Amino acid sequence: MRQIFIFLSIALGIFLIDRGLKDLFVEGYEWYSNCISLELHFNKGVAFSMLSSLGESLKYLHLLLVIAILLYLVVSKFIKKYPLSTGILTGAALGNLYDRFVYGGVVDYVSWHCWFDFAIFNFADVMIDVAVLMFLYIIYKEEKKDAR
């Protein structure tokens, strides 16, 4: 029960932080420097705006993917075994999914443009990357342990 509480708390916390940050930019906040711009963009696709040609269908594909991942995490008992990383992943995924249904695209706001232009991203995107790195580390440690 403790792991479920941790999972839900982390997922809700990540979702609320993501929403709060995105709301700042939806309401008009902007900031610029030599290397980073913080300004509102709506990504109608996925990473690097890929699949934007799918239009409205993309949000339903995103919904199905989130449901499938959550089902896998429940069935595989990942949520109970790794509540922190699964909570981070879930909260971030739900944050971006919320955007697709409310705004028609994901609210992005961090733009790197020093030495090279990089994709525009948001807090949820970073948290998804953190969760994936945590999963990779977990898998590496378990495989290393099993090899002994």
Structural notes for this entry:
With 148 residues, the protein is mainly α. The protein has one domain (2-27, 36-147). It has helices at residues 2-26, 57-75, 78-81, 83-103, 123-147; strands at residues 31-32, 36-43, 106-112. Strands 1-2-3 form a three-stranded antiparallel β-sheet. It is globular, with a radius of gyration of 17 Å.
Low-confidence stretches: none
Name the helicity range.
55-70%
Total domains: 1
Termini gap: 31 Å
**Overall 3D shape:** globular
Question: What is the radius of gyration computed over CA atoms, rounded to a whole number of angstroms?
Answer: 17 Å
Q: Going across the major beta sheet, what is the strand order? A: 1-2-3
Overall pLDDT, averaged? Answer: 91
Determine the strand fraction and express it as a percent band: 5-15%
Query: Sheet with the most strands?
Result: 3 strands, antiparallel
Output the number of helix runs.
Answer: 5
Summarize the helix and strand pattern as letters. HEEHHHEH
Number of strands: 3
What is the structural class? mainly alpha
